[in-house]
Please model this.
Amino acid sequence: MLRKKNVIYLTLLLLLIISFLLYFQWDGFSAKSDQNKIHSIQQDIFIEHHNNQFYIKQIIPSLSGGNYTIDWPQAANNRECLNENNQCQWTNDEKTNVKIKSGKITLKYTINMEDESTLLLKNWVAKFNNQQVAASKVHLIESIS
Model:
């Protein structure tokens, strides 16, 4: 009878040790994978069409701090990045790499309308690396002068 008790205690002890080892290994794995995780963002996009030109303003209310690469549309001109303190800190001359503190970010740029008979735009939204867009609100403004 004493032997059977020892086997049960030993089995429980081994199960407890294995459980702790699995938990700590999983915790370390999940912490490491969070560093490479793609985050999702929400954004508001304002598009104003005036005199054959699109004025586009993207507002991202909450973006975590870090270094980002921005994929601008090919036809984007007059590129600007504004944070809560006014200007973002560019890390290259092409204005594609930027250092951002966490908070609200606003991207502004213009796109010239190539053909006056159509309003179809392709590749017109700027994108951040490692950021997936969860929701977008698009506001269209047409002005005539």
Remarks:
- DSSP finds one helix and ten strands in the chain.
